Structures are given as C-alpha cells and as structure tokens.
Amino acid sequence: MSTSQSKTGASDWSPDQYLLFRNARNRAIHDLIAFLGPEYSPDRITDLGCGPGNSTEILASRFPHATITGIDSSPAMLTQARTTSLPNTTFAQADLHTYDPGQGVDLLFSNAVFHWLRRRDRIPTLTRLLLTQQLGRGTLAFQVPDNHDEPSHRAMRETAASPPGANEPDLDPIETPLEYYNALKPHCRAVETWTTRYVHVMEDHGAIVEWAKGTGLQPFVNLLPAAEEAGGVDVREAFLEAYRQRLEKEYPRAEDGRVLLTYPRRFVVAFR
C-alpha cells in the first residue's frame, strides 16, 4: 500500500480511511489472483506493500498452505495488518527501494503500491525484485492505478495549483504496457499485461473525496499545515472542500443521485 513515507510527504497512512471502501478496493486483488489460474499453488509469497492486510487476507484464503510475508513502510498499516492473525503469515516494516525478499519466493504480489515510487525508480525496483527469485521459477504479479489523467486526479493537481493548496507532491504517471513488457521480458519467459477500467458507484461527490483521502489525496493534504500550525485556520479542510467542488463539475450525477467513479488499473504478471 505504501512505500517510503518521505516520497509522498505523508507522516503515515490511515487504515480506517483506506478500509472504508474495502470491497471496492479488493476487486482488483481478486482479479489479479484469478488470472494466475486455479492450479497455481505457490509455497512462499511476499505481499509487497500489504497495507492494512486486506490483500494478505485474500492471498491467505486462496493459498492456505503458503507461507506469506507482508511488508509495508507504514507503521499504522502494519499495526492493522497484524490484527488479522493469519496463520503462516508475518508482517514486517520495509522500504521497497531497498527491500530484498531473498531467493525462494514463488510469488511476489503487489496491490497498488508501485505507482508511489518515482518513475526513475519504478522499473529498476521491479526488475531487482524479479531477479531475486530463483532462475527458472517464480512470478511477479502487481497492479497499479492508471489514473493520472482521470478527472479525479486532474482535479487534485488543479486544486493544489492554487490556494489553499499552492503546491503539489512529486507523483509520476505510470509506464505504458510496452515499457513494462520491454523491461521485464528479458528476465522471464512471459509477461502479460492488461488494463481494467473499474466503475465504482459512489453515494455523492463527498464519497469520492473520502475514497481519495485513503490514498491519492493524502500526499497533497500532508503538504498543508494542520490547523494548529496555521493560526487555527483549517487549511486542509478548505483544500478538501475546494477539491469536492471541482469534482462536482467533473462527474455528473446519475438519475438516482449517485456518482460513477471510473478507476482504471494496470495489471502486469511476469513469469520467470
């Protein structure tokens, strides 16, 4: 779920906020695991960026006999993950930039984490992790949101470009399928990649704000001073309200008053 905190400006992540939309966020996890097929049976799994443990729980349910290690950089997320009390599972704090899972891992799995790395670090980190697996075996399976140009994320940058934002974090769009293929294929026998555009039904525009507060908005909000640092002025809430107003212009309401949030995700599976 999260990488080095300094890369996003966040002090830590909120498991409760993230899990407000657990079922919707879990859809991509189920889809990525399903692609591996019913006969796929890894003995050792590393869940890279495990967040609050929702992805680890699904992995443990699908592969009950596997030994699983979940890693994340967020202490708060790991505290939540450890409450899952999963058998054959351990959780540890680590930074993807330097983490070494060691040889013998059959499946390196990652749900929505590599997009937090800067573009210059992303493919080198993926390649390094892939090469830790024993030659001739192992799978790297990950998905990342591909929403840099979606209205929800364009509105974040536009809100950050003027007060009360006036700054924005260093976040890069993800690579194309061809870039992932060209980078990973020399090191493995096959690479599969696809994009799924999920459509989430949200109660209103405020619900999109709550969704984004658990992930994409946090680096923006954490660059702003807290109320006690701004003379009692709640700059963060002002930013969120300005963002909500922009969303109202971007997303029309359905006839029942709800709002449809399109959320594309890029999937990549590399087989050693």
From TrEMBL:
CDD domains: AdoMet_MTases. Residues 146-157 have a biased composition (Basic and acidic residues). One of its GO terms (molecular function) is trans-aconitate 2-methyltransferase activity. It comes from the Eukaryota. The keyword Transferase applies. Residues 144-169 are annotated as: Disordered. Pfam families: Methyltransf_25. The keyword Lipid biosynthesis does not apply. SUPFAM superfamilies: S-adenosyl-L-methionine-dependent methyltransferases. Transmembrane segments: none annotated. Keywords: Methyltransferase, Transferase. Gene3D superfamilies: S-adenosyl-L-methionine-dependent methyltransferases, Vaccinia Virus protein VP39. Residues 45-126 form the Methyltransferase domain. GO terms for biological process: methylation. PANTHER family: TRANS-ACONITATE 2-METHYLTRANSFERASE, TRANS-ACONITATE 2-METHYLTRANSFERASE-RELATED. This is Methyltransferase domain-containing protein. It comes from Chaetomidium leptoderma.
